[in-house]
């Protein structure tokens, strides 16, 4: 059976789940990956209220949609971000605004509840971010010491191991979306993150090539490097090298879709990611979980893009061969 094609609801949180589920089914999706904001999934409720879980699952079932994963990126981001940042005040309840430690305490409990919610929903994957206390040290001037970086990975392990203990208890895995501003944003840092938590089996990755390609990271090599840690896959495109030469990979403080930008997110099939290479690699490692469309493209109507992206993924979602093509030659 081909992998199911699902839609990540994070960028659609302005729509009630009932409305989005009907639309997604009409576009041909087979499931949804529920973002934990808007009315799509409240992990605090889902962690303790099985009737609430049944209600949300019932909305999906009504439209013949399945659930394989939930995603709590916003809460996860707050766990390791050390400096207070007003940009994230909206990620947590209003009474946490302006208080970094209060936001973090809420976020830690929210991520633990994400594992409990997943268990009650009958799924085994939670996707999300981790935040990072050392992202601001990315460019090594003023000079950054190796001890500073080690301290950042140690802080990540200190904050996340107790959360991952709850994931272990619930039989659920956490899949970090490797991404700039997270503790892991390329192959090397992903490896260091795994080492920091003792390579515990609960921790792996939500693979998304769109955050790797424009950096110059080999996004197919990532699959092969972490073949046993690819817990979930986002299908998301990006292009790079399409600007006017005035803005580099750091973005130049420009907005998405600014024609000067070096890189941008694009609807599937309209960027530079080689998805056939990705499907081959996923087949090689035996990945049989969903391919989840995360739709982002400031240049395109999102409903047009969501439908077109579903069709793109279904067309390229080929299964590996069960026979050698030249096996008949010696018969």
Summarize this entry quickly.
Helices cover 38% and strands 14% of the residues.
In words, what does this structure look like?
By secondary structure, this protein is an alpha/beta fold. The protein has one domain: TIM Barrel. The protein has 10 helices and 10 strands. An 8-stranded parallel barrel has the order 1-2-3-4-5-6-7-10, surrounded by 6 helices. Strands 8-9 form a two-stranded antiparallel sheet. Helix 4 (73-80) crosses helix 5. The longest helix is centred in the middle third of the chain and has 25 residues, at 146-170. It is globular. 44% of the residues are buried.
Q: Supply the CATH class.
A: Alpha Beta
Name the helicity range: 25-40%
The average pLDDT is 96
The oligomerization state is: single chain
What is the correct CATH architecture? Alpha-Beta Barrel
Strand proportion, as a percent range, falls in 5-15%
Q: Count of helical segments? A: 10
- CATH topology (level 3) name: TIM Barrel
Uncertain residue segments: none
Report the end-to-end length measured between terminal Cα atoms: 29 Å
At the fourth CATH level, what is the homologous superfamily? Answer: Divalent-metal-dependent TIM barrel enzymes
Strands in their spatial order, largest beta sheet: 1-2-3-4-5-6-7-10
Number of strands: 10
Whole-angstrom Rg: 20 Å
Task: Tell the overall outline.
Answer: globular
Number of domains: 1
H-E string = EHEHHEHHEHEHEHEEEHEH
Structural class: alpha/beta
Q: Give a quick account of the main beta sheet: strands, pairing sense, barrel closure.
A: 8 strands, parallel, barrel
């Amino acid at each position: 059976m081909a992998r199911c094609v699902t839609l990540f609801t994070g960028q659609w949180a302005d729509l009630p789940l009932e409305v989005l589920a009907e639309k997604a089914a009409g576009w041909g999706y087979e499931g949804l990956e529920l973002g934990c904001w808007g009315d799509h999934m409240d992990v605090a409720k889902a962690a303790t209220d099985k009737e609430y879980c049944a209600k949300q699952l019932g909305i999906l079932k009504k439209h013949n949609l399945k659930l394989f994963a939930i995603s709590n990126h916003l809460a996860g981001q707050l766990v390791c971000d050390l400096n207070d940042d007003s940009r994230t005040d909206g990620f947590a309840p209003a009474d946490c605004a302006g208080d970094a430690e209060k936001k973090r305490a809420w976020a830690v409990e929210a991520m633990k509840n994400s594992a409990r919610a997943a268990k009650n929903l009958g799924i085994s994957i939670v996707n999300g971010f981790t935040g990072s206390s050392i992202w601001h040290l990315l460019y090594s001037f003023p000079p950054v010491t190796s001890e500073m970086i080690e301290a950042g990975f140690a802080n990540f392990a200190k904050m996340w191991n107790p959360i991952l203990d709850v994931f272990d208890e619930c039989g659920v895995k956490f899949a970090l979306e490797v991404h700039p501003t997270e503790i892991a944003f390329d192959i090397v840092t992903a490896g260091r993150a795994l080492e920091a938590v003792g390579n515990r089996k609960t921790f792996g990755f939500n693979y998304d090539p769109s955050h790797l390609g424009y950096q110059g990271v080999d996004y197919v090599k990532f699959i092969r490097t972490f073949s046993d840690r690819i817990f979930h896959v986002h299908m998301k495109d990006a292009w790079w090298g399409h600007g006017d030469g005035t803005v580099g990979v750091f973005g130049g403080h420009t907005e998405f879709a600014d024609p000067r930008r070096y890189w941008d997110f694009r609807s599937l099939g309209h960027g530079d990611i080689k998805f056939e290479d990705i499907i081959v690699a996923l087949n090689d490692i035996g990945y049989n979980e969903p391919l989840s469309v995360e739709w982002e493209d400031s240049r395109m109507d999102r409903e047009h893009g969501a439908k077109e992206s579903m069709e793109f993924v279904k067309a390229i979602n080929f299964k590996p061969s069960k026979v050698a093509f030249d096996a008949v030659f010696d018969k």
